[in-house]
């Protein structure tokens, strides 16, 4: 048998001489610290460069506590963000919402936060959507509809989990926050959202009538039904109700408390600091989840 019979003669030919390619020299761009603060930095026709400059200026101003300057920079940055650059657009909008909160501009802060929720829903950025809803709950803690939407979003995640076997989907640009999508935490946050909704609506319905009262009664019924499906233990209901009802004092719930200068006091603590950390400290997860069921 001829061992090399199947080889083509071309296999043993010498390789053709290769043409050497000479690379042109490359000079890396060297930037001075805070180069974007220089007045001449904006002397460019490149939209991407202008976007970067304004974004960096806004981020720096936030770190320095100069929230009006940061808001102005972010506003200018918006004009130069490409339509398909969702990541930067969301980051800038979130920065603007935070700046408006710090400056006591409630309506603008709520506008940007609502816009963020819509964007996150459209692109199924679940972690960011939950974060935006929590920000709304922090800015208007006595608005039951933000709490209701938070509960509904978590409920939808749990239902998806029953179908796909996992809560989906975590944001690609926020992998470190994927732990918040654990089924036990989503379940607990859903319970918290509907309990807070129920607490608020029970107080508000005392002053309501007509179709407004009808909507409240319908939502209360839905919240009760959902909590039955989530089936938390009685001890869990009691612990969550205690934490979530501590600030529901008539004097604090007056409408003027959420207007004007008082907004600064409302936003002193984030959702995590004000409610979530304290909810976790109750130990209800260890006692009631993740072995809970959803009927």
Structure explained in plain terms:
There is one protein chain. With 295 residues, this protein is an all-alpha fold. The chain folds into 2 domains: 89 residues, Tetratricopeptide repeat domain (Serine Threonine Protein Phosphatase 5, Tetratricopeptide repeat, Alpha Horseshoe); 147 residues. Helix content is 59%, strand content 0%. Helix 3 runs antiparallel to helix 4, helix 4 packs antiparallel against helix 5 and helix 7 packs across helix 9. The radius of gyration is 27 Å and the shape is elongated. The termini are far apart. The relative contact order is 0.08. InterPro entries: DUF5588, TPR-like_helical_dom_sf.
Q: How would you spell out the order of helices and strands?
A: HHHHHHHHHHHH
Kindly report the average pLDDT value.
79
| E-strand count | 0
Question: Which sheet architecture does the biggest sheet show?
Answer: none
Tally of separate helices: 12
Silhouette: elongated
User: Which percent bin holds the helix content?
Assistant: 55-70%
Tally of discrete structural domains = 2
In terms of quaternary structure, the protein is single chain
Low-pLDDT windows of residues: 1-8, 256-268
Tell me the fraction of residues in β-strands, as a range. under 5%
Distance between the termini: 74 Å
Radius of gyration: 27 Å
Helix/strand class:
mainly alpha
InterPro entries: DUF5588, TPR-like_helical_dom_sf
Protein name: Chromosome 8 open reading frame 76
């Amino acid at each position: 048998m001829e061992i090399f019979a199947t080889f083509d003669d071309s296999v043993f030919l010498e390789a053709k001489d290769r043409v050497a390619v000479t690379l042109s020299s490359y000079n890396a761009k060297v930037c001075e610290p805070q180069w974007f603060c220089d007045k001449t930095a904006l002397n460019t026709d490149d939209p991407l460069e202008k976007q970067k400059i304004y974004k960096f200026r806004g981020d720096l101003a936030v770190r320095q506590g100069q929230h009006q300057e940061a808001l102005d920079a972010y506003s200018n940055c918006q004009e130069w963000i490409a339509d398909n650059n969702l990541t930067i657009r969301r980051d800038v909008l979130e920065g603007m919402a935070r700046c408006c909160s710090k400056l006591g501009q409630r309506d603008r802060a709520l506008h940007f936060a609502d816009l963020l929720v819509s964007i996150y829903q459209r692109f199924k950025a679940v972690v960011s959507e939950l974060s935006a809803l929590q920000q709304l709950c922090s800015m208007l803690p006595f608005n039951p509809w933000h709490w209701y939407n938070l509960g509904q979003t978590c409920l939808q995640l749990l239902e998806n989990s029953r179908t796909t076997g996992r809560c989906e989907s975590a944001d690609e640009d926020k992998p470190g926050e994927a732990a918040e999508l654990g089924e036990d935490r989503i379940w607990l946050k859903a319970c918290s959202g509907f309990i807070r909704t129920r607490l608020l609506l029970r107080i508000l319905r005392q002053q309501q009538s007509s179709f407004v009262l009808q909507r409240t009664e319908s939502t209360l019924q839905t919240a009760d039904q959902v909590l039955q499906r989530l089936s938390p233990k009685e001890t869990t209901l009691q612990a969550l109700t205690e934490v979530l009802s501590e600030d529901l004092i008539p004097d604090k719930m007056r409408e003027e408390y959420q207007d004007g200068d008082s907004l600064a006091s409302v936003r002193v603590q984030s959702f995590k600091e004000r409610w979530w950390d304290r909810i976790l400290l109750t130990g209800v997860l260890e006692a009631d989840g993740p072995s809970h069921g959803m009927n």
